[in-house]
Amino acid sequence: AATAAATLGDFPITLSQVIQAIAGVGEEFHVLIVREWRLPVAIAAVVFGALLGLGGAIFQSLTRNPLGSPDIIGFDAGSYTAVVLLMLVIGTTQYWVIAAGAIVGGAITAFVVYILSWRNGVQGFRLIVVGIGVSAMLTSINSYLITRADVDDAMMVGFWSAGSINRVTWGSLTPSVAISVAIFGLALVFARSLHHMEMGDDTALTHGFKVSAARLVLIVVGVATTALATAAAGPIGFVALAAPQLARRITNSPGVSLLSSAAMGAALLAIAHLLSLIIATFYRPIPVGLITVSIGGC
């Protein structure tokens, strides 16, 4: 799907020409289009989709609830609030400032939700309900700031909130991929602990796992997945929610698998990106975040 997406755009080219351009042996113009413009976006769809699928799998396992997704719990809303404040209140549009703000906003939101959910430990149901409440309040703050802003600024923030990967370049993608590798590494290290916690904290404790420490690390990793994707592309809904459950059904797995969820997330976002480009050929460009929400709602 990601490779097919590289064939579409203002200058359509064939699949064989895309493969040649990736290898650097095609026409110079095709190499420029594919390697400099379209390839970063296609890779971003795969990487960010995998991150969202991973984040969804972590929180659905921690909460033992299929609704335990970062976009449901409100971490996306926290990242978005930070971006709204930076753009509309402070007045900055620099990418790395916005990216850092989105990550910090998601982390602060996670911390608040975690503290408010704590009652001699964190229960999945409490985490979800508190997250929904915090998300609702953050959404109201965002709406208030946008309605009080200048029209042009409000439109800029609104476009970012739609979730678009088309603005991704090599300059922003390369560090994102490097951070993603570290995130996946940490997730895989604690995957065994997560599997045992799915069976209950008591079971995990009897098998020698430090539940509280593992849960805290996994929450940080899970927040980092959605914050990194949100920082680069804006909020992209439903991928983190749907990917683990779709992967679980396809693989007929008794639990939520991190790797299969990440693979499903990558596939979902890559296909959504391909659909957005197909629609653009006969209508107009639509941000991929609107595609995932529309299909996810159905």
Task: Produce a short descriptive summary.
Helix content is 78%, strand content 0%. It contains 15 helices and no strands.
Structure description:
The protein is mainly α. The chain is built from 15 helices and no strands. The protein has helices at residues 2-5, 15-23, 28-63, 70-73, 75-90, 95-117, 124-147, 151-161, 170-189, 191-197, 201-206, 211-233, 239-251, 258-282, 288-297. It is globular, with a radius of gyration of 19 Å. The mean pLDDT is 87.
List key phrases describing it:
15 helices; single chain; 298 residues; mainly alpha
Q: Which helices and strands, and how do they pair?
A:
Elements: H1 2-5, H2 15-23, H3 28-63, H4 70-73, H5 75-90, H6 95-117, H7 124-147, H8 151-161, H9 170-189, H10 191-197, H11 201-206, H12 211-233, H13 239-251, H14 258-282, H15 288-297
